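cache lookup: miss for this entity combination. No prior model stored, computing from scratch. Input as submitted by user K.M.:
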Amino acid sequence: MKAQASAEQETATKTGADLLVEALIGQGVETLFGYPGGAVLPIYDAIYRAEGSFDHILPRHEQGAIHAAEGYARVSGKAGVVIGTSGPGATNLVTGIADAMMDSIPLVIFTGQVAKGVIGTDAFQESDIMGITTPITKHNYQVQEIEDLPRIVNEAFHIATTGRPGPVVVDIPKDISSTVYAKEVKSDFHLPGYQPTVKPNPLQVSKLHDALVEAKKPVVLAGSGVIHAGASEELKTFVQNYQLPVTTTLLGLGSYPGTCDLSLGMAGMHGTYSANTALYECDLLINIGSRFDDRLTGNLKHFAPNATIAHIDIDPAEIGKNIPTHIPIVSDAKAALEALNAKTVKGLHHKGWMDAISQNKIDYPLWHDQPDELIVPQWLMQKVYEYTGGEAVVTTDVGQHQMWAAQYYQFDRPNRWVTSGGLGTMGYGFPAAIGAQLADMNSTCVAVVGDGGFQMTLQELSVLQERRLPVKILIVNNQALGMVRQWQEKFYSERYSESIIDVQPDFVKLAESYQVPGYKIETQEELLEVLPKVLGDDQPAVIDCRVLQKENVYPMIAPGKGLHEMIGVKR
Amino acid sequence: MKRIVTATVHNRSGVLNRVTGLLAKRQFNIESISVGRTETEGVSKMTFVVEVEDDRKLEQLTKQLNKQIDVLKVSDITDKAIVARELAMVKVISNPQIRSEIQGIIEPFRASIIDVSKESVTVQVTGKSDKVDALIDLLRPYGIKELARTGLTAFTRGHQPQVAEFKSYSLLK
């Protein structure tokens, strides 16, 4: 009796929030992105008391927090951790949650909730965040019992980071986080309904090997699955062994070095001629970790019409979803490539194909006009690439500037390219750059943003002011919502409905009001002078770079058209 | 095509919302759904009857369901040897004169009258959906005041005939 009593005394009294903090420390979490509020007061109190355990980043809007966490996750490879309060705090996170779901970014999001007793009564700052986030999360939890909390936290991290990564929401009622609990809690878990297949089926691997040896026109399509699996080295070996041309998706940029001879660059709506033609004409398409998004495939009828399709994906639901697949391999990309690399390769049959592809690369390169004085955005991207030696972390919003960055910045390494691909979120680039910079303090981090997107999340300049993070914000300023304007020009007879925005803040003064150096660049001469200096120093910067307004992204596959119907291939 | 899909799921709050929300998001048409507890504590079984265009859509449906963390197992049992039942209650307008007529109609269906009032009788019928449909069609001319169906619930028979057995009896080959 006596021994038992003393054992119980030894277990310190903790609140649910303390259990949460302990579990986060146990998961190796170092950086938190969050915003306090009523329902998370106990959690913020526990964070305060656990001083020194975390670097907590306070954005100025919850959307900033979650995009920063996405950028952090993308660059670090670890789960991004976000905290928001109930009601508006949680709903402000929704865009980022949906974004992370579409792009398979591992996030664990903790939302406060009103106390259990008042859930369902339309209490102050109550929202049904479980109902709201169920379709846009990999999984979500509402903690019902305090003793479940550590287990749920561990499950959430496991689910977010394994298999096909994705966001997991943990909703914590205020009474759970504030209640004192003195007993031992168990944190181990078993998830019988979640057992991702990570090893490939050897039979399918052999089938793919045989198909590769036989193929006359093979091509590899590398997606972000390669990056998530950390399989870039294996991909290089594979491509070298079989001598394959490689194209990547938007999110797959960097999975294979863009400057390699075998690289065709990005494929899809604004992909290169050589990449899209290879996809159209190939007789064997090996998709590694991409999901055949409509912006990649164009009209499905004309997508690789004569090809045997091999698809390596860790998510079985992606195989056969959009494109019928002949050789399905459900596996982690790394494991599948390792299995393929173990095969002996001899007698390949596609020399003629490689020659034709190389010729396409030479005959149909990316092109743009070059005026005498003013700046075209494509040239701007080339200069950014040049001045950062191709080593920077580049983040973007969505639109024209995103496509130009994707086309002209050659990524040779994975996890350097942070962009919103699936959801296409304006305002993503700048906060994502904050997270990316925190994950890699030694790299230059450039947020390539549009003048439209930047104004959606520019309040996060406060974070730069507070932390002196040397993020370089490069506003590709065409005083328009460029991609909308381009589509209006091409498909709506130049009726520029609400897409030309010539009233703007003075971005230089705006930056300076946050004590961030601001620069305005209007000519090529100014750019050559200012850009290398600014990209090279250790200060944050806002660079308002004025570019030609009516410039279009080419080449392009118009909506509903096939890969072989590109426009703007040549000047 | 109509398919019968079963899913065993963790009996947690929100799981029904998760599953139906998923089917709605991917634009699958649910004709009926029934849920109930199983022999295992904490595990429920859902039976869906869904209308899908083709095999690829069907494959997507089972794969998407399988992805859910709370879903333990998904089976399309349409082509298996199964037992499938649903229950319907039909309130039919009837005066005492035609009550026995109704009795005569429902008898071959092994349905029963479970409630009688001055103006109506309530018939309960159990069976496969087409049997239930047939009885409802027969009762319709009398005037149906109210109709409630549970949706199909099903599982596989204890013994599954081998696929080869079907082939050997085929008249077409």
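stored under new cache key. The interface with chain A takes residues 9-10, 13-14, 17-18, 21-22, 25, 56, 59-60, 63-64, 66-72 of chain B (CB under 8 Å).
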